[in-house]
Amino acid sequence: MEWRIITTLYREMTYKRLKANPQFSADWNKFMKAFKRGGSLKRALLTQSALFTVLGLILFPGVYSVENPAGSAVIYASYCLVPLIMALYRTAVNAQYAVSLGLFEPLISLPIRVGGKYLSVLLLATELPAALFLLAPAVGLAMKLGATAGILGLAWGLVGTLIGHTIGLLIYDRFGKASGGRFAGLKTAFKAVGIIAVMSLFYGLNYLQRYVSSHYEVLRGIFERYSVAYPFSAVTVEKPLLSLALLALYGLVVGAVYISTVRRLWNRISEGTSTERQAGKARISLHSPPVALALKDFRIASRNTSLLTGLLMPVFVIIPSFIGALKSGSEVGVLGFVLAVAWVSSIAVDAVLKIDGRAFEVLHS
After folding, report:
1. What is the total count of domains within the chain?
2. Nearest to 12 by CA among 138, 119, 170
């Protein structure tokens, strides 16, 4: 019964997210295809699990190729920060988003306080596949230090996901009530930059892998000295009893904080999300048509996290990658990169034209 409620909430969230996306809402057939494809929680979990498992293969050589087996634990511990960051950010952002959609309003009138639990399970279910990013490195750890070390390493990855999820719930419980107001644009920009930063983790892992592989002997002493703190605690997989004791300690502490936070979440959900409004002077400025259209698009994007992310993506990802491809001197690499950018741009143009079309309808009226 509870799983059916979670799947229903997920379908409702997917439906409302697609309705708010001009790329799908303007085309009913396209909308239904996207909803059938993305409205199944089981399908989404399987897809994400497969994706993160494949992406985790890039971390396997870093753990397995180290000559000293002790260095494998240090490198693996440095990777354990990834699921924590991803779970923290996705929880902090998606919690407020899910509540703002009104998913839990039917539960408010019931004489039970279970909305916080459903919100947490809904978010955690979509975040757990990120822990499989460490599956391939855990296999490499098992091949170097034994099966027990591999299992413990994967357990530390799950603990990192739970820690990030709990901290994200705490952030929502503390700051998740108000939206809009004086700093609304700043909040949207923070979310957009956060999304890009999470995506950039996969770029940073390449550098992290090379750095830790060449300095693991120095880092090993630091990790062991602060092994009580996560993610340094993952280095204890070489000592199974100590690692199990730390896992139990983290389970008790994080579990207690998690249960306490989930119980308070219902008050936050029932309060809803208030919108701050501040009066200001209206100003009308005249610009040339191209500049006016550009300013209009930017103002629309500044109020929408997904659109602002797409606007900032070239600055943070595409342009630096293009410069790197040019510096490499590989004509094939530059050509492949340009073709990839063209393909992505052709998809984005459809959404941009539909946004402009809606704006023109307002102007025509």
Report:
1. 2
2. 119
